[in-house]
Amino acid sequence: MIGEEEDNVLEFSNHLLNHRATCDDEEVSAWLSDEEHVRVIDRSALVNRVLDPRHFSEWKEPEWQRLYARVGWGRRRWWWRRLPVAASVLVGLSLLFLLLRGEGDRAPGVWIEEVEIVPGEYKAELVLAGGEVVSLARESREIRGDASLRVHNDSARGLVYGKAERRDTASLIHYNTLKVPAGGFFPVELSDGTKIWLNASSELRYPVVFGEGERVVTLSGEAYFEVKEDAGRPFTVQLRRSRVTVLGTTFNINAYEDAGQVYTTLVEGSVSFLSEATGEHLVLTPGTRGTLEVASGALSARAVETEVYTAWKEGIFYFKEMTLEEIMRVLSRWYQVEVLYESQRLKHERYNGKMPMYSGIEDVLRKIELSGSVRCRIEGRRLVIFE
């Protein structure tokens, strides 16, 4: 590819980077899937690096971040998920972007004051039965707790309780509480072998050792469960005005206090979702999501793509037909920011997107901005959404 045709490739690259909102999604997707375009971009990147390695090292990271954001987000669109050459395109385009628009330009919309806003991390607090508070992070250490039970904070597995014999007297059962703050994530393995992953701004209260009967834990926030099967002892999660009971299964629960609904998404097995207000219960099957309307106690269920509601466990934001308000609740908990809207109407816009949770917040915001309907600015730890 030489001459006028290559010039057209460079021209379209520049147009895509600077005027994404005016580009047709199908045209962009088709253009980026052409391997010849990728080769032209790679050659341009290589030449630029050889001619000016100093500027390459200075500009590579910030322009990568700008470019990564610019080729990936859409309102009610999924085109960026079809890019087979995204990784190689980004390296080349980020440098090409510098050549075509100049070092001093700023990306529109998002601007950031001198406040560091970072993604969430592996952290929690463990409140022992006697009231002692233990700070937890990604480390290996023994936790002093119940004298008859080994409790270990494992750098890979999180908080792990040793296996223990059942206790037949309720008065002997002691409870621990695991609190994961905003900007946190933490897993725990209970003494019966049940594994639980807690998302940001969540709290789980559970027995150090379960008794002979029903296994009961209490959850506020969001958690992913892999329940150890025990036919003689059902496992129950106590929630706001509701309960989820299982024998052994895999499911996600979203029960934040600032929302009007409680959600149970079943991945494997079977669960009973009970409304305490009405006495109604639903038996969920894999691939369904049960919803409790907290105010009325009404229950409903529908078939869903479970990955949308469980991807956070793998460190992925997955937004599918979610309102901007729902997305911003997630971001505010993960990045520890307060969200303000200059127009309440913007809350109801719906978006799609999928990206790593450990990306910088500006990456996510620029993706949202590519829809053309909203703009974002950061003021300290406040995120302002405007038209």
Proportion of residues in helical segments: 25-40%
Number of domain units? 4
Termini Cα gap: 42 Å
Shape: globular
- The helix-and-strand class reads alpha+beta
In what range is the share of β-strand residues? Answer: 25-35%
Identify the strand order in the major beta sheet: 1-6-9-10-8-7
Radius of gyration: 25 Å
Total DSSP E strands: 23
Q: Ranges with pLDDT <50 over ≥5 residues?
A: 41-61, 66-108
Number of helices: 8
Main beta sheet strand tally, sense and closure: 6 strands, mixed, barrel
Mean pLDDT metric: 79
Descriptive account of the structure:
It is a single chain. The protein has 387 residues and is an alpha+beta fold. It has 4 domains: 3-101, no CATH class; 115-194 and 202-212, no CATH class; 217-310, Jelly Rolls (Sandwich); 315-386, Phage tail protein beta-alpha-beta fold (3-Layer(bab) Sandwich). Helices cover 26% and strands 34% of the residues. The strands form 3 sheets. It has a 6-stranded mixed beta barrel. α1 packs across α5 (86-101), α3 (35-51) runs antiparallel to α4 (53-70) and α3 (35-51) crosses α5 (86-101). It is globular, with a radius of gyration of 25 Å. The two termini are 42 Å apart. The model is unreliable at 41-61 and 66-108 (pLDDT under 50).
